[in-house]
Amino acid sequence: FFSRQRYVLGDDAMKRLRKHHVLIVHAGGLGIEIAKNIVLAGVQSVTLQDTINTSMLDLATQYYLSEEDIGKNRAQCSLEKLRALNDYVKVNVSIQSLSDCSNEYFKQ
Predict the structure, then answer these.
(1) CA 98 to CA 78: how far, in whole Å?
(2) pLDDT, tens digit, 9 for 90 and up, residues 71-103
(3) Complete edge-to-edge strand list for the sheet that includes strand 21-25
């Protein structure tokens, strides 16, 4: 699965990459593109945090959303499609506001 990436980055970099946990804030157009690339890269886990529900405007920039998702949380609607990209990466969603999160949340 990662043979091309391993060739470019090397085994040591791939091992280090596999140990990382990544928090991505907002699942809009840019956030979902970053999430997709990080999941494909093969980190240990990705948490996609978003408190915003899908609007009609999101459909133009966030390619994992559809009209059926309008009114639903953007991160939750994107979760299964992100998980399907790489079985080796744990993908989670948080709909909690970052201002409500304790310091322990960010140490995960």
Answers:
(1) 19
(2) 999 999 999 999 999 999 999 999 988 877 776
(3) 21-25, 45-49, 90-94
Distance (Å) of CA 96 to CA 16, 23, 29, 66: 29, 13, 20, 23
Residue 6 reports pLDDT greater than 90: no
| 17-53 tens-digit pLDDT | 788 899 999 999 999 999 999 999 889 999 999 999 9
Instruction: Please indicate, yes or no, if residue 95 is contained in any of the structural domains.
Output: no
Domain that holds residue 65: 17-89
Examine residue 81 and state whether it is found in any structural domain, yes or no.
yes
pTM: 0.82
Going by C-beta distance under 8 Å and a sequence separation of 6 or more, which residues neighbour residue 26? 49, 50, 52, 74
Which CATH number does the domain housing residue 27 bear? 3.50.50.80
Cα 49 from Cα 106, distance rounded (Å): 12
